[in-house]
Specification:
This protein is mostly helical. The protein has helices at 8-28, 33-43, 47-60, 65-73, 80-89, 94-103, 106-126, 130-140, 145-154, 163-168. It folds into three domains: 1-63, Arc Repressor Mutant, subunit A; 65-104, no CATH class; 106-158. The longest helix is centred in the first third of the chain and has 21 residues, at 8-28. The model has no long low-confidence stretch (mean pLDDT 88).
Length: 170
């Protein structure tokens, strides 16, 4: 907003516009408190309005970092490291992130990593270096090296000839 609202009617109108904008943003997707605050400050640098809109949305329950963290933690196909990075990127409090990850079942990462590898294995086996590509795939999905190593060890890998062996056959 360009001019600072001076009259009570202008201030109320500015607040209403900011609240409408915040509600539209929350309709599109869930935002963390920090994300929405940052978005609102870009829209209107008047901190007083932004804080009152955020406070109202928190009071109404439309803005809830705990619910956002729980939702991210229940996503399938991503490991704890990726969830932690995503929540940190979205401005969620570190303590809440750690608490959320502690509630996550450790065996879940293992079973999901197994499922992902089984699903992706045919594609990975078509190219060279299937093991390293599979390892990289699981790590990029956010699974820790301990989980990835266990899943990789359980897999029955076809024997690959070293690169120098195929060169000697020609």
């Amino acid at each position: 907003m360009s001019a600072k609202p001076t009259t009570p009617a202008q201030r109320e109108d500015a607040y209403d516009k900011l609240m409408d904008y915040a509600l539209r943003a929350l309709t599109a997707r869930a935002h963390s408190e920090a994300e929405l605050r940052q978005k609102l400050l870009k829209r209107d640098p008047e901190e007083q309005f932004v804080e009152s809109v955020v406070a109202r949305l928190l009071h109404l329950g439309y803005l809830n970092d705990q619910e956002l963290a729980r939702s991210e933690a229940t996503r399938r196909g991503v490991g704890a490291y990726r969830i932690k990075a995503r929540l940190r990127q979205r401005g969620v409090d570190s303590e809440l992130i750690e608490e959320t990850l502690q509630q996550r079942d450790p065996d879940r990462d293992l079973s999901e990593a197994r499922e992902l590898l089984q699903k992706r294995l045919p594609t990975l086996l078509r190219g060279k270096n299937a093991r390293s590509r599979a390892y990289g795939f699981l790590v990029r999905r956010g699974y820790g090296s301990d989980v990835v190593s266990r899943v990789m060890a359980e897999q029955d890998w076809p024997t690959e000839k070293p690169a120098w062996a195929s060169a000697n056959e020609e």
